[in-house]
Amino acid sequence: MSKRALVVIDLQNEYLPTGNLPLTGIEAAVANAVKVIADSRAKGVPVIHVRHEFAHGEMPVFVPGTPNVDIQPAVAPQDGEALIVKNYPNSFRETELQQLLDERSIEEVVIVGAMSHMCVDAGVRAAADLGYSVTVLHDACATLDLEFEGVQVPAAQVHAAMMAALKFGYANVISTQAYLTV
């Protein structure tokens, strides 16, 4: 078995119904992430938390120093768990994430978080490109409705399309239950 780490991407208050960027299904995704985090902690699998911030105020979301930038309490880091702060969708870009994984001889990353079509996608593709084996727990991720050239795309379809694309060439995409029973 490869050496594994759990990477929890951007499960922040900003995505709650009270935040500025509420996601469809965020509560269910966080509930599943809680299970996976507890399982990882019990098995000694490193849990690495990623928090998005827009450091220069370029967006009205993920503003440093505001409550919405905080990781949701249910999935907050515990003592000894790494916290990576990023300023781009890709969790590896200009962060110490790869160095941290390599120092721990990690070969496989399991990814949960938000948003499916943005930061989860960017992190999964980067991890695969860097040579890690990647597993995505699709029901521990969430996204939102999108619009493209007048076409409204419901969150469920956005999520399904992203998971299908990731499964096609970048990751093993499975449910939380399937992961926990392996």
Average pLDDT metric: 96
Taking strands numbered 1, 2, ... along the chain, how are they ordered across the largest sheet?
3-2-1-4-5-8
Q: Which structural class fits the helix and strand makeup?
A: alpha/beta
CATH topology value: Rossmann fold
Question: Any overview of this molecule?
Answer:
The structure is a single chain. The protein is α/β, with parallel strands linked by helices. The chain is 32% helix and 24% strand. The chain has five helices and eight strands. It has helices at 26-43, 97-103, 116-129, 155-169, 176-180, and strands at residues 4-9, 47-52, 82-86, 108-114, 133-142, 146-148, 151-153, 172-174. Helix 1 (26-43) links the parallel strand 1 and strand 2. It is globular, with a radius of gyration of 15 Å. The N and C termini lie close together (12 Å). Pfam families: Isochorismatase. GO terms for molecular function: hydrolase activity.
Layout of strands and helices, then pairs:
Layout: E1 4-9, H1 26-43, E2 47-52, E3 82-86, H2 97-103, E4 108-114, H3 116-129, E5 133-142, E6 146-148, E7 151-153, H4 155-169, E8 172-174, H5 176-180
Parallel strand pairs: 1-2, 1-4, 2-3, 4-5, 5-8
Antiparallel strand pairs: 6-7
Helix pairs in contact: 3-4
Summarize the structure.
The chain is of the alpha/beta class. The chain has helices at residues 26-43, 97-103, 116-129, 155-169, 176-180, and strands at 4-9, 47-52, 82-86, 108-114, 133-142, 146-148, 151-153, 172-174. A hairpin with a 2-residue loop joins strand 6 and strand 7.
